[in-house]
Amino acid sequence: MCGIFCSVTSKTDVQHPAVIEGDGQDGSCLFWQTSDASFIEDTFITKNREFASQLSESDKKKLSHVQELRELNERLNKLKNTIKVSSEAAESRRAIENRIQEITDDESHDDLSTTSGSKETDMSIDNFMSLIATRGPDYLSYSFFREANASFQLVSSVLSLRQPFTQQPLDFDELSLQFNGELYNEECLSTNDTDYIKSLLDENMGNFGRRDGILRTVISLYGEFAFTIIDKTDKMVYFGRDIIGRRSLLYAYDESQKSLCISSLPPSSNSDFQECKGNELMIYDYQNNVLETLTYTELFNNYAMDPYLSLEPTSDLCESDSLIDQRIEKLHANLATSCDLRISTVHPLHPYSENYKVGVLFSGGLDCTVLAAMLCEQSSKIPKLELDLVTVGFENSRTNTKASSTPDRKLSKLSWFHLSKLFSKSNVEVRLVEIDVSYEQWLLHRKKVMSLMFPRNTEMDLSIAIAFYFASGCFTGRKSVLRDNNVSWNDFQAQEEQYLSIDESYMSNSKVLFSGLGADELFAGYSRHEALFNDLMKPDTQEYESEFKKRNQTLVLSLIHDINIIYERNLGRDDRVVSSWGKEVRYPYLDEKFISFVVGSIEPNLKLRISWENVTSKKKGEVFKAVATRKWILRQLAERMGLTWVQNEPKRAIQFGVKSAKMEIGQSKVKGTDKL
Question: Where is coiled-coil annotated (predicted)?
Answer without folding.
Answer: 62-89
